[in-house]
Amino acid sequence: MQYKQSVAVNVRLLLSGRLEGIGYFTHETLKRITRQNPDIHFWFLFDRPFSSEFIYGTNVTPVVLFPQARHPFLYVWWFEFSIARWLKKHKPDLFLSPDGHGVLRSTVPQLLVMHDLAYEHFPKHMSLLQNQYFKYFMPRFAHHAAQLATVSQYSKADICKFYNISPQKIDVVYNGVKEFFAPINEIDKANVRAKFASGKEYFVYVGSVNPRKNVANILRAFDLFKTQSGSDVKLVIAGAKGWKTSEIFDVWNQMKFKTEVVFTGRLQEAELVQVLAAAQASLYPSLFEGFGVPPLEAMACGVPVITSNISSLPEISGDAALYVSPQNVPDIAAKITALATNSHLRASLIQKGFAHYKQYTWDRTAHLLWQSCLKVLG
Question: Which domains, and CATH codes, for the chain?
Answer without folding.
Answer: 5-176+361-377 (3.40.50.2000), 186-357 (3.40.50.2000)
